[in-house]
Specification:
Elements lengths: L2 H18 L10 H22 L1 H7 L3 H9 L7 H11 L6 H13 E2 L7 E2 L2 E6 L2 E6 L2 E6 L5
Antiparallel strand pairs: 1-2, 3-4, 4-5
Helix pairs in contact: 1-2, 2-3, 2-4, 2-5, 3-6
Length: 149
Amino acid sequence: MSGFDAGLAAAQEALVRAMTAGGPLPDGFDAGAVRAAAHGILLKRAGEVARAWPALAASHGASWKGAFAAWAAERPTRGSFRDGWDFAREHRDRLAGDAARELALAEVRWSYDGREPPRPRRAAVRRLPGGAAVLFRGRVRVLGRGPSG
């Protein structure tokens, strides 16, 4: 790779980091335009996470996009499923009803340590609002009454 190509690649990498993970703005770029693009990317991420985690997004109502964007501003994306899971875990104490159930069902189906990609579980039990979810032999059974919260 030539020096020009290497310099261009480094500038592009810095620009992407500035727009997607709160990195410093590289020299020669319009700060306002980069902030606007970064905000647009965060709103798009919020929409993608809302599709993967509909109850989580619905639990925040109209404040979803803003709440998620504020949380995600300094975090590079790891995909909508993992982004939603990480957000839900960080806000677990405020989840109720369907959002708490959505997180518990993900946790009963998948093993996820927050670093490595989720892996399917063989068997697990998780508390749900009003009951529990049990995973055994690839099937999830929900025991107890429906969500309350």
